[in-house]
Amino acid sequence: MNTKTYRYPSVLTIAGFDGSGGAGIQADIKTISALGCYATSALTALPVQNTQGVKAIYPIPYHTVQDQLVTILDDIFPDAIKIGMVHTGELVDTIVDTLAEYAQTPVVFDPVMVATSGDKLIEDKTITTIVERLFPMAAVITPNMDEAAILAEMPVRTLDDLYVAGLKIRKLGCQSVLLKGGHLDAPRLTSLYFDAQGTVHEFGFTKSETNNTHGSGCTLSSAIASYIALRNSLLEAVRKGQEYVYQAILHGSDVQVGKGNGPLNHFFNPQKLTKYDLV
C-alpha cells in the first residue's frame, strides 16, 4: 500500500563546485536546505578554491552536464531552478536547450562574470550568448555592480548609476532584474529590483563590517529560488531572499573559517522540510 501523501518543494541548482563550502553548489544546497526545500544539483565546473581564491578550474564535459540535467528532471522535477556561473557559450546552449525540453519552471540566474579581484571571468562572446539565450528564460537575474557595469556598458559606482544601469539591462530582454548594491561606498547598502511591469523597488540594509561574505551572491540567488518554490510571489521571494542573506552575513560575521573571505552562516535559523500534498 502506498502511504506517500506528501512531497517536498524542490530546487535544482546548476552551478560550479566550491570545496571550501562557502559558495557554488555547496552554498546553494545549504541555502535551499536551510529554507525548508529539497535540493537537487547539476555540476557545471570543478574549481579548485578556498577562502583565499581560485587556484584552477576544471570544466565538466557538456554532454555530462546534459546527462545530469535530464536524469534529475526526469525524476525530481523542480519547483524552481537556480543557475550560477556559466563560463562558455557552449555551456549556455547545453543548459538552455536541455531545459527547453521540459515544462517551464521559474529560473533565477546569477550572472557571475567578475572575480572579487575585478578580473572578468568570461569572454565577451559568452556574455553575448548569455544575454541572447539565458536572459529571456530567467524570471529574474541578479547581477552585482561590477556585472551591471559590463551588461549596461557604463561605470556603476553610485545609487544613481544603479538606476540608469537597471533600465538599460531591462532592455536586454530579461523579465526582471535585481541589481545588488553590496559594493556601494555607503553605510547603508541599497539594492534595486526592476520588476516585469517596470516598477522599481528599493531595498536597504545596514552595511556589516565583515569580510565573511564569500558566496553571498550564490546564496541570494538560491534563496530567491527557494522562496519561489515555497509559493511566494517573485517580489516577495526577492525581498525575503535579501533579508535571509543579510541575516546570514550578520550571524556569521564574528566567526573565522579559513584565512581569507569567510562564508555566511546559512543555518542561523534552519527550517524543517516543507511538505505539500502529493497531487
UniProtKB/TrEMBL annotation:
UniProt-recorded Gene Ontology molecular function terms: ATP binding; hydroxymethylpyrimidine kinase activity; phosphomethylpyrimidine kinase activity
GO CC annotation terms, alphabetical: cytosol
Pfam families: Phos_pyr_kin
CDD domains on file: HMPP_kinase
Pyridoxamine kinase/Phosphomethylpyrimidine kinase domain segment(s): 18-265
EC number: 2.7.1.49
Keyword annotations: ATP-binding, Kinase, Nucleotide-binding, Transferase
InterPro entries: HMP/HMP-P_kinase_dom (IPR004399), PM/HMP-P_kinase-1 (IPR013749), Ribokinase-like (IPR029056)
Official protein name in the record: hydroxymethylpyrimidine kinase
Source organism phylogeny: Bacteria, Pseudomonadati, Bacteroidota, Sphingobacteriia, Sphingobacteriales
